[in-house]
Specification:
The protein is an alpha+beta fold. It has a domain of about 120 residues. It is built from five helices and five strands; from the N terminus they run αβααβαββαβ. The protein is globular, with a radius of gyration of 16 Å. The structure holds iron/sulfur cluster.
Length: about 180
């Protein structure tokens, strides 16, 4: 099963993927404070982001209820370290790949998993939350590693992946958690 999941992640475009044990995942409730600082401007404007996604302690407990994770990453080249358009474009591509992986998992019949991607949901613009409406595509909606309190840089230290992959690059991560 593990090799099949890794191949699936690579087939939708991620550069690297590996299975990790849940004990390798580092969580820290301070990530909620970073969301509350609202540097991204989406706090309170998306069902998949804080505070609507849930209380941080409950979400960390949910992460810890799983036993294995398919961790994946994409590395994107930038023109320079100020290439914010390149970072945003990479972020959109990362979310497209995550949604493609989600569709493949659904097609293969996986149901009992938690999929967390890169910040925000991004399926609708704006999110239905802005108009006080229910989520339009709950089967596609994805929350983020950080919203669930996962410290990605500390977690990656326990794997074969690198958090930073050279000058003028940006790296994005995601994880699919499974019960067994
Ligand atoms: S799928 Fe659309 S409505 Fe649902 S959380 Fe994502 S952006 Fe919001």
């Amino acid at each position: 099963m593990e090799n099949k999941l890794i191949k699936l992640a690579l087939s939708v475009g991620f550069n690297r993927a590996e299975m990790i044990d849940a004990s390798q995942i580092v969580c820290d409730r301070k990530f909620r404070e970073q969301c509350e600082a609202n540097a991204c401007g989406v706090f309170g404007k998306c069902w998949m982001c804080p505070p609507d996604v849930g209380q941080i302690d409950a979400l960390i407990a949910e992460v810890k209820s799983y036993s294995k994770g398919l961790l994946y990453q994409s590395v994107f080249e930038l023109e320079d370290s100020f290439d914010f358009e390149g970072m945003q474009e990479g972020g959109r591509t990362q979310n497209q790949r995550s949604r493609a992986l989600q569709e493949e998992l659904n097609k293969l019949g996986y149901t009992d998993f938690l999929h967390l991607s890169k910040g925000g949901c991004g399926v609708c613009s704006p999110c239905a939350k802005v108009h006080g409406e229910p989520c339009r595509f709950p089967e596609k909606a994805l929350s983020s590693l950080e919203a669930y309190g996962i410290n990605v840089s500390a977690t990656v230290k326990n794997t074969s992946m690198k958090y930073i992959n050279g000058a003028n690059t940006v790296t994005y991560f995601g994880i699919v958690l499974f019960k067994e």
